[in-house]
Design goal:
The complex is a heterodimer of chains A (109) and B (116). Chain A is mainly β and 109 residues long. Chain A is 0% helix and 61% strand. In chain A, the strands form two sheets. In chain A, strands 2, 4, 5, 9, 10 and 11 form a six-stranded mixed beta sheet that branches. Classes of the chains: A mainly beta (109), B mainly beta (116).
């Protein structure tokens, strides 16, 4: 089957750095995306890794290692507004996407 | 440019009733998707479409049907609603330019469905 695993919850303080890990087991994998979802809202795109290595987008960075079937999202200079759920999503051939269960990030003052 | 819109925003159904959820996008995207999200869980793909007139099954297709008669619209139908279909339904679209390029999905605001 296809599955992704993420920690269910992470807590950090304002200004800190937090890393959210994602391990995947899917068939036809070719990339990993990250999405942010605030309570009651729709998921919004954060980052995508189609190749191994680090992708940086402002305060957010994402990393992929295909050999380890592993990726992570790194959030720096945490702000209160970063409190949300974060989902990794595996891109598979045929435009099929599989989402992880999500990690709820709580940023404390 | 409205992006992805969904109709209705909220609906209550009785077991056995039918309904259609409408998704529309104005970005000329080829690919469209229907997901469901249950409380505290991730999104599960119900059906998707890689172009006008095409549809394909996702992870949890049972009890749902879809149609993509026009490129900009993707309809999700429930023929006989069941309480297990109580969920938030999200529609998304992506450009589908290449499998090897970044494929951002743009999501609609969601439809909250309660089946009694």
């Amino acid at each position: 089957g296809q599955s992704l695993e993420q920690p269910s919850e992470v807590t950090a303080v304002e200004g800190a750095i937090v890393q959210i890990n994602c391990t995947y087991q899917t068939s036809g994998f070719y990339g990993l995306s990250w999405y942010q979802q605030h309570d009651g809202g729709a998921p919004t795109f954060l980052s995508y890794n189609g190749l191994d290595g680090l992708e940086e987008t402002g305060r957010f960075s994402s990393f992929l290692s295909r050999s380890d079937s592993y990726g992570y999202l790194l959030l720096q200079e945490l702000q209160m507004k970063d409190s949300a759920s974060y989902f990794c999503a595996a891109h598979n051939y045929g435009q099929n996407f599989v989402f992880g269960p999500g990690t709820r990030l709580s940023v404390l003052p | 440019n409205a992006g992805v819109t969904q109709t209705p925003k909220f609906r209550v159904l009785k077991t056995g009733q039918s309904m259609t959820l409408l998704c529309a996008q104005d970005m000329n995207h080829e690919y469209m998707y229907w997901y469901r999200q249950d409380p505290g869980m991730g999104l599960r793909l119900i059906h998707y479409s890689v172009g006008e007139g095409t549809t394909a099954k996702g992870e949890v297709p049972d009890g749902y049907n879809v149609s993509r008669l026009k490129k900009q619209n993707f309809l999700l139908g429930l023929e006989s609603a069941a309480p297990s279909q109580t969920s938030v339904y999200f529609c998304a679209s992506s450009s589908g330019t290449s499998a090897y390029l970044q494929e951002t999905q743009y999501f609609g605001p969601g439809t909250r469905l309660l089946v009694l």
